[in-house]
Amino acid sequence: MKRATPANRFLEPTALMRIRSLELRARIVVEGFRNGLHRSPYHGFSAEFSEYRQYVPGDDIRHVDWRVYARSDRYYVKKYEDETNLRCQLLVDGSRSMAYGSNPELTKHRYAATLAATLAYFLTGQGDAVGVTRFDDHIRDYLPPRNRPGHLRRLMLSLEQEPEGRATDIGAAIERVAQMHDRRGLFILFSDLLAPLGELKRELGLLRARGNEVVVFRVLDRRELDFDFNDSARFTDLESGRDHFIDPGRARADYLERFHAHEIELRQICQQGGIELIVTPTDLSLDLALYDFLSSRSRRGPDPGRSRANLRRAK
């Protein structure tokens, strides 16, 4: 993970969450990411999601961005509007389990909403259409992919809503959203995925079968990954409301065994379905989460079934 410096300390999740405005948080992450593209750890990285592309002979030099040239010593031209027509739908889990955070200021839901807002801000800024779906055991809010004045603000207002439901029904939400989309696009799911995976496999497979690209961000608190609790305590199931008195020393081995078995099943589902899975702890710097996403897409390349509406590469 990148060390905190005066330039990036505001991108650390705990500090970032102190900013009340979700849109401002997203803007800070995106601008920090862009400023870091020409410095480690982004040196040499090709960001497919970019509002610029590298200059090629024949391009009109009037479109060269000389400020970017001054920072990177490379020529970039701003992309024309018809070069980006990606349609992206963000699916954000708002079930009660997402309200958990070992740091109350940094819950899984706040992190997921901020990451979703960051991608929305990034994509909207380059002319792509972005929508959002908030769900728990049913769809709470749905905004279709658009890029028009005022739409980004509506996305931010939706993402600012706190988790409302108890149970999670990811499969039903994905199925309903798939029915509402008759054009291929990119679907990005943000969830802790702490639920049975049977329906998820079927519904994600349905999205892929219709020619969509699918990315899954699994957002987890660090303590859910390593079960780093020391003292016996009462644990409350946020979705069922039931209390359990647990001795972590005795329960850790069984918990980690079950957790890893669930993770293996999830990875197999995603690998077999051609789905990108990115496990994102809530203590991961938001610009690095964005980097992980763009880097994975750069390695995979565009989906074979898609046209040049796929995202352009800029070095």
UniProtKB/TrEMBL annotation:
SMART domains on file: VWA
Domain VWFA: 85-257
PANTHER family (alphabetical): BLL2464 PROTEIN (PTHR33608), DUF58 DOMAIN-CONTAINING PROTEIN (PTHR33608:SF7)
One Pfam family here: DUF58
Listed name of the protein: DUF58 domain-containing protein
Gene3D superfamilies tied to this protein: von Willebrand factor, type A domain
Species of provenance: Haloferula chungangensis
Top-level taxon: Bacteria
